[in-house]
Design goal:
- The structure is a single chain.
- By secondary structure, the protein is mostly helical.
- The protein has one domain.
- The chain is built from 5 helices and no strands.
- Helix 1 runs antiparallel to helix 3, helix 1 packs across helix 5 and helix 3 packs parallel to helix 5.
- The chain is elongated.
- The two termini are 22 Å apart.
- The mean pLDDT is 93.
Length: 167
């Protein structure tokens, strides 16, 4: 099981680090939009929509990495004062009772919405927009899937910490 955890952590790490470079890309694209608009009076709906796509990719592929790195927001008034074993119990119950059901619900409730978008190869409502809305909507399924995978890794790590009795 710990090999599975390492494999998932490696995947999350690679995806998170790779897609983090899109933040720089997004800044460059936004700067180009501003320069084109205000210096040359050129507007591009496709370029503006690309910022939405880039942002979605950053969040979609960064969510599992952020969970792995314990970077998600949590109220740690009490958590930070607990020993390792008690933290592991909280992480275990959080992953089992909150993370996994939420991720599964998002997948379940979004499946038809994304499937219809793929079926019609949905594109932008704007005539000069990007024709890949169905790919963008796929992120709705990819994000909770990656989060669920990393949640499995976190569950394995929590169980290991509980068994070891980490201080």
């Amino acid at each position: 099981m710990e090999k599975l955890s390492l494999l998932i952590d490696g995947l999350s790490n690679r995806l998170g680090r790779l897609f983090s470079w899109l933040t720089l890309t997004m800044v460059v694209v936004m700067a180009a939009i501003v320069v084109l608009r205000y210096a040359f009076q050129i507007g591009s709906i496709a370029l503006q929509e690309s910022v939405i796509y880039i942002n979605a990719l950053i969040f979609t592929f960064g969510v599992a990495y952020t969970l792995k790195e314990q970077g998600h927001v949590r109220v740690d008034i009490f958590y930070s004062r607990l020993n390792g074993k008690k933290r592991a119990w909280i992480d275990l119950f959080g992953a089992l009772l909150l993370l996994a059901p939420s991720a599964c619900f998002i997948i379940w409730i979004s499946w038809d919405y994304v499937a219809v978008s793929w079926r019609i190869r949905e594109g932008s409502a704007e005539s000069s927009g990007l024709p890949f809305v169905y790919l963008l909507k796929s992120a709705i399924l990819v994000l909770p899937t990656l989060l669920l995978l990393q949640g499995i890794s976190e569950i394995v790590k929590s169980i290991s910490a509980i068994k070891r009795g980490d201080p």
